[in-house]
């Protein structure tokens, strides 16, 4: 495991380890007998110094000795050394997984460093998976650790989707869920036996020959049996929820809020965790808090239908978002409007999404506070992958940075549009209409109209009548008003 430590801290390359007289075993392998005499933690050896620095809980030299010496060891000392090593290995696996999911290395490292609780959780899963190895005081190899943890992390990713990072950072209390739901859903099962048991629970008839009460209730609600199985595959704890204590109270609340009965199965399918949240301790107090900061209580039906996860976020998460919006200059009234109209903003990270996006828009002269009210969805986009290419598209066509900022202020969603499917074809047609470029700066909403169903037909009618209208007038007025203007100008 010392080799695992050293390889981890030298970027995962054993070849990068300093070779100043010390033998380092490849990851997952023990030192050969003929190498034993070469292994000693010398004061002038960078490898040895690194081991000493990274193993504050034990004597570094005796840790190296553990790699081969068969002499009796203090069990408690051995376990503490193994745990220290497994923590670092778990961090490395989590960082690797987050990078595989597309996060930058610096961001992945920051998340890992803020997730001590989740790291301990991963280590406990290793202890469960390899119980006999721990009893014998034997170390795990890096491949064994990865083989155990990566499938578990993948399962969590499928279960929590975009909320995975929040689950990791806030463990053991992600999304203010009840501990009961959390512990059931996060049991480590390399063989997926718990998932299979959960699916069997909602698939097999009872002793009386009927389907389980949970299944019967959800079928009556309008959910398909296969949909129920899919929920349980993603969230096994759902199979054990009590209908009277968990499911019915949520359904009754949703109906009370005005959610159509036909929409409730879709809400449960999207966010089954809602059923596990305490109505009195979490859900209703959170609703009261959100209403107090401006969420329109008459719009709860639309908010929950649009984004069922909205009520599963922690109070701390909500306060962080609200604090940022206030700092940006958004009024309390408008904060409520933003959360009501675009509850998805709650899933955005302040440090990784909202703040960098606001700073970028400000750098091109756009009003970030106004823009987040017009187009909050733009603040969930990656600056380098999505926002900058839009700006560069217009810069390449000789628009100034000031003009691009004006266009963003006037048409907030312009940076959310597709280059290939929207901006490029519409800009090419714009050039054929022989309008000056300033028309687009004045009316960037042009890019929001359908090219085939609005722009081309109206332009054809306008030119066919021998009439010339400004871009705004040609597109924004109603069909009846458009015909009236064409007729009036043609008569003249």
Per-chain topology:
Layout: H1 2-9, H2 46-54, H3 60-65, H4 75-100, H5 105-113, H6 116-129, H7 131-135, H8 142-160, H9 164-170, H10 179-185, H11 193-201, H12 213-221, H13 225-234, H14 243-256, H15 264-270, H16 279-292, H17 300-306, H18 315-328, H19 332-341, H20 350-363, H21 368-374, H22 383-395, H23 401-410, H24 419-432, H25 438-442, H26 451-464, H27 471-476, H28 479-491
Radius of gyration: 30 Å
Major sheet summary line: none
Question: Regarding quaternary structure, how should these chains be classified?
Answer: single chain
Q: Outline, from the CA principal axes?
A: globular
Q: What is the residue-mean pLDDT, rounded to a whole number?
A: 79
Helix/strand-derived category reads mainly alpha
pLDDT below 50 for ≥5 consecutive residues: which ranges? Answer: 1-73, 174-191
* Beta-strand residue fraction: under 5%
Total helical segments: 28
SSE string, helices as H and strands as E? HHHHHHHHHHHHHHHHHHHHHHHHHHHH
Distance between the termini: 89 Å
Number of β-strand runs:
0
Organism: Paspalum notatum var. saurae
InterPro entries: MTERF, MTERF_sf
Protein name: Transcription termination factor MTERF5, chloroplastic
GO molecular function: nucleic acid binding
């Amino acid at each position: 495991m010392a080799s695992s430590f050293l390889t981890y801290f030298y970027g995962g390359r054993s070849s990068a380890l300093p070779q100043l007289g010390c033998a380092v075993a490849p990851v997952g392998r023990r030192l050969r007998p003929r190498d034993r005499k070469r292994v000693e933690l010398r004061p002038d050896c960078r490898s040895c110094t690194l081991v000493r620095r990274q193993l504050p809980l034990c004597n570094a030299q005796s840790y190296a000795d553990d790699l081969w010496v068969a002499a009796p060891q203090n069990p408690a000392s051995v376990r503490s050394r193994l745990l220290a090593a497994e923590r670092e290995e778990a961090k490395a696996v989590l960082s690797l997984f987050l990078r595989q999911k597309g996060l930058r290395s610096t961001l992945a490292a920051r998340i890992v460093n803020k997730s001590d609780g989740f790291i301990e959780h991963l280590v406990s899963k290793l202890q469960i998976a390899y119980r006999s190895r721990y009893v014998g005081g034997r170390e795990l190899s890096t491949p064994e650790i990865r083989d155990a943890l990566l499938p578990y992390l993948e399962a969590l990713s499928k279960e929590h989707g975009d909320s995975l990072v929040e689950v990791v950072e806030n463990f053991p209390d992600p999304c203010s869920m009840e501990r009961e739901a959390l512990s059931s859903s996060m049991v480590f099962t390399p063989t997926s036996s718990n998932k299979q048991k959960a699916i069997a629970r909602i698939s097999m008839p009872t002793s009386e020959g009927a389907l389980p009460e949970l299944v019967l209730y959800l079928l009556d609600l309008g959910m398909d049996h296969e949909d129920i199985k899919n929920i349980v595959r993603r969230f096994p704890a759902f199979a054990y929820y009590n209908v009277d204590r968990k499911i019915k109270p949520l359904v009754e609340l949703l109906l009370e809020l005005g959610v159509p009965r036909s929409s409730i199965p879709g809400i449960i399918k999207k966010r089954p965790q809602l059923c596990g949240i305490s109505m009195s301790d979490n859900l209703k107090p959170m609703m009261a808090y959100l209403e107090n900061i401006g969420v329109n209580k008459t719009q709860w039906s639309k908010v929950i239908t649009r984004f069922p996860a909205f009520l599963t976020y922690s109070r701390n998460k909500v306060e962080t978002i609200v604090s940022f919006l206030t700092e940006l200059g958004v009024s309390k009234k408008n904060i409520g409007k933003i959360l009501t109209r675009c509850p998805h903003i709650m899933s955005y990270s302040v440090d990784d999404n909202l703040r960098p996006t606001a700073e970028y828009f400000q750098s091109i002269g756009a009003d970030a506070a106004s823009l987040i009210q017009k187009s909050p969805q733009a603040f969930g986009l990656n600056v380098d992958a999505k926002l900058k290419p839009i700006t560069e598209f217009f810069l390449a066509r000789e628009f100034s940075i000031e003009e691009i900022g004006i266009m963003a202020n006037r048409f907030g969603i312009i940076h959310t549009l597709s280059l290939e499917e929207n901006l490029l074809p519409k800009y090419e047609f714009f050039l054929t209409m022989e309008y000056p470029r300033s028309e687009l700066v004045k009316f960037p909403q042009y890019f929001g109209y359908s090219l085939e169903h609005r722009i081309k037909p109206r332009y054809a009618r306008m030119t066919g009548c021998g009439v010339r209208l400004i871009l705004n007038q040609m597109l924004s007025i109603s069909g009846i008003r458009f015909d009236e203007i064409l007729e009036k100008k043609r008569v003249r």
